[in-house]
Amino acid sequence: MNNDLAKLHPYPFEKLAELKSGITPPAHLAHIALSVGEPKHQPPAFVLQTLTDQQAAFSQYPATKGLPELREAIARWAQQRFKLNAESLSADKHILPVNGTREALFAFVQAIVDRTKPDPLVISPNPFYQIYEGAALLAGAEPWFLNCTAENGYLPDLDAVAPEIWQRCQVIFICSPGNPTGAVADTGVFKKLIALADQYDFVIASDECYSELYFDEQLPPPGLLQACAELGRDDFSRCVVFHSLSKRSNLPGLRSGFVAGDASILKSFLLYRTYHGCAMSVPVQLASIAAWNDEQHVLENRDIYRKKFDAVLAILGDVLEVERPDAGFYLWPRTPISGEDFARQLFAAQNVTVLPGSFLSREHQGVNPGAQQVRMALVAPLEECIEAAHRIRAFVQSL
């Protein structure tokens, strides 16, 4: 077996199951899960209909590079959404469809990390999506973390990183809007990171899966390729972004997303993926075209989340240290007791499940940035989110 498998941490939800084991919550209260970031809104009917209508396409082996029509639909969407020049973002050279970004984020690091270089690092925010860490370990690299706390606006402090760390860095993950914090990086952050990548020769992997969940229609979160365009960097050198239909279109089970950016990197990544055997089925590609071509359902989706944040924050705002995030569908409140104790006792008292922040972070430089926080995913229907908020309020007041 690969010895690096022994380095992997249990996944957060394994830890959560262990944390809750042996507890019997009140039987008269229905369970409400705010722990898993799995969208529960209704998927677009026209996308599901496309899957039904295209069943005959299951008889075809799909190409790893995907249908030209899908890459063109993605290119049009990205050009409009991130103010990109149509001549610079090529559907043929700069875009690859992927089976959800979880798969792609992991595979990308395996293709990028050069094991012949000494002591390779993969840098990520802390707290973080655990795939970043697992991908680094199984690629033979060491994870290195940037603590994201309230003091730095929940964004990585790039100025605090020593030159010797940048020199060892081969890949840096940035997640904006952040999971779990909801913090949004402006183009200035991306531009600073691009300058560092040029100076120290590493690749930027920008996880932008929550980019379409925001509150102000006039202020959509910017992206890494948008920062490239503002710099006149039309080759997107060292820059790669990851996007998904899971959150944008409430289609987590479709497993459909894309990777876009530096053409030379994507050419090698395509070679890796051809051997990896991860081509997207043709019916899923056709359904994805329909989803990327429509914005109305995305507008409606954002409106539902706005209503949930308004309602929940009105209930919890005066009993917990909690603020509306910049974007995304998570709340990241500071808890009056440790996050693990809060989650365990809340489940025991109110049959509501939240995720301790320490399960999403690591102790780094003497600090675990999630130790005193929990993640609440507002993915349940509005009425359930309101009910959960009332139960959480009652629990907090009982402490």
UniProtKB/TrEMBL annotation:
GO terms assigned for molecular function: pyridoxal phosphate binding; succinyldiaminopimelate transaminase activity
EC number(s) from the headed UniProt entry: 2.6.1.17
Alphabetical list of Gene3D superfamilies matching this protein: Aspartate Aminotransferase, domain 1 (3.90.1150.10), Type I PLP-dependent aspartate aminotransferase-like (Major domain) (3.40.640.10)
Cited NCBIfam families: DapC_gpp
Database matches in Pfam families: Aminotran_1_2 (PF00155)
Catalytic EC class: transferase
Assigned keywords, A-Z: Aminotransferase, Transferase
Requisite cofactors: pyridoxal 5'-phosphate
Protein name as annotated: Succinyldiaminopimelate transaminase
GO term, biological process aspect, one: lysine biosynthetic process via diaminopimelate
Sequence ranges assigned to domain Aminotransferase class I/classII large in this UniProt record: 32-362
Designated gene of the protein: dapC
